[in-house]
Write a structure and sequence with these properties.
The complex is a heterodimer of chains A (805) and B (214). Chain A is of the alpha/beta class. Helix content of chain A is 48%, strand content 14%. In chain A, strands 1-10-7-6-5-4-3-2 form an 8-stranded parallel sheet. In chain A, strands 13-14-15-16-17-18-19-20 form an 8-stranded parallel β-barrel, surrounded by 6 helices. Chain A is globular and about 90 Å long. Chain B has 214 residues and is α+β, with helices and mostly antiparallel strands. Chain B has a single domain, classed as NADH Oxidase (3-Layer(aba) Sandwich). The chains are: A alpha/beta (805), B alpha+beta (214). At the A-B interface, α13, α26, α27 and α29 of A face α2, β1, α4, α5 and α6 of B.
Chain lengths: 805, 214
């Protein structure tokens, strides 16, 4: 019944609960949910007051009722939730309104931050929400009202929990700050894309601001969403008097502003902190049921990450140009990448992601499929880790439907999905996932009969994909058609067919398009020239997004030039910014170093001065004349030792030590490539496992140690942060490791360091353990049984050298 | 040299030594980047403070035992609970730099620490101004984990501030603040102005600390 009325008439929510409870004696820090059991008459009275004031939808007093936030020895969560739902129903009964009032199970955030920024697992958050929602539905709630969310990831966990475990309508509201962003960074279109993708019944904003301050963010929200909009502001901005928080927008003023808000398109309205039954009464008296504006379906194609949204296509009033999808996270044809996947070298993959963003990518394609690789778990891991270092939306690229679902489930945002084809089997597999998790899906113009050789055939398949998607409620705006680029070396008409397909998809089908651009030149020499020209032509014919290599200078030049030429780059600002300072890439310092024209002398000073780019360039020159091992022994190692000694004497400091380490690393990379080519191998000095212990999420110290150990030729297995003792022990046993380095920051996590040491001594008694971290000293290290305490990173290098001497 | 740069250099372990040009240039760039990325937010609430004969401290309903905090709050009648954070963006910046360039990562880490302190000082000035109207003077910030003020008090302090909801500040199961660049503190308010209020670092008992402000 609620779903039928939603968006067709104005519906009234209730107002603040916390403020009223405080007036009735709730102490700061006391859990308001307990009052469901200890003060049932107070809770019912408040509900009744709101019903009398005109509320149609009344929220249960369960904002903080979840297993992660609510801890009480006397009453269980189930008692609280059941009582809370009962109170709304009882209050409605007392007024003879049991058929008129909707009981909304109120669900607030867990109060914890999800991984990777915090320590809460996505699935743990999901389970906590699920538990309460199942209880709520069982107790008789009519809908689930998720509110005050300030993190898209937690919001996604809550919405999924509601959709998968109950049959109730789902409302979701979030808190935007004055920059129109969530605390974890998402903008309005990003939140909208996520919630629409997950198919909530209504979305909106609550808390944080008063109705007046909410107007601009609301304007943005109504511009992007096609869902009924909920608005639940505070009674103004919080103020403090005598140590108490209060809000001072009067009911009449509140009511007038709420009427204005309905005229902007909101259709479910109420109040949050500081609003009272008087505010709601005024609001229901001033606003009228027919004050509702029909919702217009928006045609934006948007993908999002936790921190930003990316628009595709020109279907909007904004001109966005062509979107760059970085293709580099993909093992196809890349030996080094395959090796990284096999060795589980996630850092390499993450660096590829960062480099593509730095080079101008807007979206990153993620493909980790390789025979003999556990794609399911790797895809999940890479998506999670990438989202801790890049804020670009990701494109989930896999043919394995299970891996696709895994990734879509834990992805923080609305993903791009690569891909579905016109094959029935493919559509049957992929569309249900898009229907459930949301996403913009790439549709390949091929089917059971292969790839049509002409544009007509490809257009036909595109139309088939679009109409099949509609059966799942997936709109055309969430489909991007891949017109398929076939290499011109075997298909002479290939480029022309693709370009015609692109143009007609834009003009006739009016759908967004994508291409893997570089396929066009397969088998030809000087491929970048062909690729760049074709890229320009494709954009000219309507290409909404190109899957390209953003570190290809030719491609990026084509992209910038096209946007400047087509007036999609105002005042050519982007073009000038990119190419305006195209001075000689070699820095001043290195010119001095190179001037001596004696590569034998040049590398050491470059490393000592911490000149990263120059060290690599000088090394590339040097290897033409000298053996890599000689360069390492005569230049690199002495330079590192010199810097290390300076650090220990106190004449060189941590940033300089690390700049030198990074410069050495860039030189090593060049040398290693050369040695791989010649089949020469540099003997590793020994394997060291390093980790920040369980419960500890600060890993900067451990990372410093990693860089230095790496420099000195040790093979480092970095297990990351918050690592359970068992994982460390297992790794030590698996690789027969003789040295482990553990880091902990605080007294609370030293206990888990102690536990790790105990377990290591028991299972791997020959393994030595060195420890470090802010809270440790020699005495403390001795007490927990460590073999060595390293005051700084250099000391850990010396200890490792002793162990493996 | 700006105070924030001096503080950054102290966190980086330079002590009294002069910093090199490259590091100074990097610090400058990082502050510019942080101005874009950091989203500082703070919250405070004022509570009545009572201290009992046997050393118990009552901040509102919260009972605390800590002789270091007790010393810090001597003579105070009110306690301001305070929370501040630079937000998750800063954490991501550090995580990203840790993969690209550790020198940059440690500098961001130090700059963010300095920026956070600077922000807390500014916010505390505002609180001081308000409290001044009631004839009360503020003491230096004192955080859970200082001296014998048990870090476990992080939990009730954060609950009383409702800071997950208000400023997005949460903690892990081991009482670490997330986002990492965050602070919670108790600030005492007394009717008498202390002649020379000692700030956090100098008040600490660990005199051999290499990061000690000199």
């Amino acid at each position: 019944m609620l779903r039928e009325r939603l968006g067709k008439e104005l519906l009234y929510l209730d107002g603040g609960m916390g403020t009223l409870l405080q007036d009735r004696g709730l102490a700061p820090g006391e859990l308001p949910e307990i009052w469901n059991v200890t003060h049932p008459e107070v809770i019912r009275e408040i509900h009744r007051l709101y019903m009398e004031a005109g509320s149609d939808i009344v929220l249960t007093n369960t904002f903080g009722a979840n297993a992660l936030k609510f801890h009480d020895t006397n009453c269980s969560l189930e008692e609280i939730v059941t009582a809370a739902v009962g109170h709304v129903k009882a209050a409605a009964g007392e007024l003879g309104k049991e058929d008129k009032i909707f009981t909304a199970l109120d669900v607030g955030p867990t109060g914890k931050l999800l991984k990777p920024m915090g320590d809460l697992e996505f699935e743990t958050a999901y389970e906590a929400f699920k538990e309460v929602m199942v209880m709520g539905e069982k107790a008789g709630a009519d809908l689930i009202h998720i509110e005050t969310m300030s993190d898209t990831y937690e919001l996604k966990a809550a919405v999924l929990a509601a959709k998968e475990n109950t049959s109730l309508p789902v409302f979701a509201t979030v808190v935007f700050d004055e920059r129109h962003k969530l605390l974890t960074g998402a903008d309005v279109p990003a939140v909208t894309a996520l919630l629409e993708g997950l198919r909530v019944d209504a979305m909106g904003v609550n808390c944080s601001m008063g109705p007046e301050q909410m107007l601009p963010v609301l304007e943005e929200l109504t511009a992007y969403t096609s869902l009924p909009v909920i608005v639940k502001p505070n009674a103004g901005l919080p103020k403090q008097r005598d140590g108490k928080t209060y809000y001072d927008v009067e009911p009449e003023v509140f009511a007038c502003l709420m009427r204005q808000i309905t005229r902007m398109g909101a259709s479910v309205i109420g109040g949050c902190c500081g609003t009272t039954p008087e505010h709601i009464r005024s609001m229901t008296e001033v606003c009228r049921r027919d004050d509702i504006f029909p919702i217009r379906e928006k045609e934006y194609t948007v993908v999002s990450s936790y921190g930003q949204s990316v628009f595709l296509g020109n279907s909007t009033e904004k001109k966005h140009g062509s979107v760059i999808i970085g293709e580099r996270i993909n093992p196809t044809g890349k030996k080094r990448f395959k090796q990284a996947l096999k060795e589980h070298d996630l850092d390499y993959i993450l660096r590829e992601g960062i480099a593509q963003q730095d080079n101008g990518a807007h979206i990153l394609d993620v493909n980790v499929g390789l025979p003999d690789i556990d794609e399911l778990s790797l895809m999940r891991e890479v998506v999670l880790e990438l989202q801790s270092v890049v804020n670009l939306p990701l494109q989930i690229d896999t043919v394995d439907a299970e891996a696709m679902e895994n990734a879509l489930r834990i992805y923080n945002g609305k993903a791009m999905v690569n891909s579905v084809s016109g094959k029935q089997e493919s559509m049957d597999k992929v569309f249900p996932l898009i229907q459930k998790y949301g996403g913009v899906v790439i549709g390949l113009t091929l089917d059971e009969n292969g790839i049509p050789s002409d544009a007509d055939g490809r257009i036909k398949i595109a139309r088939k994909i679009i109409s099949e998607a509609a059966k799942y409620g997936i709109k055309k705006k969430d489909i991007v058609i891949d017109a398929l680029a076939m290499t011109i070396s075997s298909e002479p008409e290939g480029a022309k067919v693709t370009l015609e397909t692109l143009r007609r998809l834009r003009d006739e089908v009016k759908v967004n398009t994508v291409l893997g651009v570089s396929n066009i030149s397969f088998g030809l020499p000087a491929r970048p020239a062909v690729n760049a020209s074709f890229y320009t032509l494709a954009m000219m014919n309507g290409l909404s997004a190109g899957i390209i290599n953003p570190s290809s200078e030719d491609m990026m030049k084509a992209w910038y030039a096209y946007h400047a030429l087509m007036n999609l780059d105002e005042n050519c600002a982007g073009y000038i910014e990119r190419f305006g300072n195209a001075a000689a890439p070699v820095g001043e310092n290195s010119k001095d170093l190179l001037k001596k024209n004696d590569s034998r002398m040049s590398l050491a000073p470059a490393i000592e001065k911490g000149l990263k780019e120059d060290a690599a360039k000088i090394t590339s020159e040097a290897i033409k004349e000298r053996a890599p091992l000689d360069i390492i022994n005569e230049e690199l190692i002495p330079a590192l030792n010199h810097v290390g000694e300076g650090f220990e004497k106190g004449t060189i400091f941590l940033p300089q030590l690390l700049m030198s380490a990074e410069a050495a690393k860039s030189a090593f990379t060049v040398l290693k490539e050369q040695m791989d080519k010649s089949g020469e191998a540099q003997e590793k000095k020994g394997t060291v496992v390093i980790a920040t212990v369980k419960g500890d999420i600060h890993d900067i110290g451990k990372n410093i140690v990693r860089v230095l150990l790496d420099n000195y030729g040790f093979h480092v297995i970095d297990l990351g942060k918050d690592v359970p003792p068992e994982k460390i022990v297992d790794t030590v046993l698996k690789y027969d490791v003789r040295l482990v380095g553990l880091s902990a920051l605080m007294t609370t996590t030293v206990t888990s360091m102690e536990e790790t040491i105990r377990l290591l001594k028991e299972k791997a008694p020959k393994c030595r353990i060195m420890v470090g971290g802010a809270v440790l000293n020699q005495e403390y290290a001795d007490m927990i049984g460590a073999d060595f305490y390293g005051k700084d990173a250099m000391q850990s290098v010396h200890y490792a050298q002793d162990i493996f001497a | 040299m700006e105070r924030r740069t001096r503080e950054t250099l102290r966190y980086l372990g330079y002590g009294k030594n002069a910093a090199d040009e490259k590091t100074l240039a990097l610090i400058k760039d990082v502050f510019a980047e942080l101005e874009q990325t950091a989203a500082p937010k703070s919250i405070c609430r004022v509570f009545d403070l009572e201290q009992t004969e046997d050393g118990g401290i009552f901040i509102g309903n919260l009972k605390i035992r800590s002789s270091s905090l007790s010393r810090n709050l001597k003579g105070c009648v009110k306690a301001v609970l305070f929370g501040a954070t630079l937000g998750t963006g800063t954490d991501r910046l550090i995580a990203r730099a840790s993969l690209k360039d550790m020198a940059e990562a440690v500098v961001i880490q130090a700059c963010a620490a300095a920026l956070l302190e600077e922000y807390c000082d500014q916010e505390q000035m505002k609180i001081a101004e308000n409290m001044g109207k009631q004839g009360l003077y503020l003491r230096p910030r004192f955080s859970p984990g200082y001296g014998d003020f048990d870090i476990a008090y992080q939990e009730p302090v954060m609950r009383m501030l409702d800071c997950a909801k208000t400023i997005g500040l949460t903690m892990t199961d081991s009482f670490m603040l997330t986002p990492m660049k965050s602070v919670t503190a108790v600030i005492g308010a007394a009717p008498v102005k202390e002649p020379c209020p000692v700030a956090g670092c100098e008040a600490c008992g660990k005199k051999d600390c290499e990061y000690r402000r000199r």
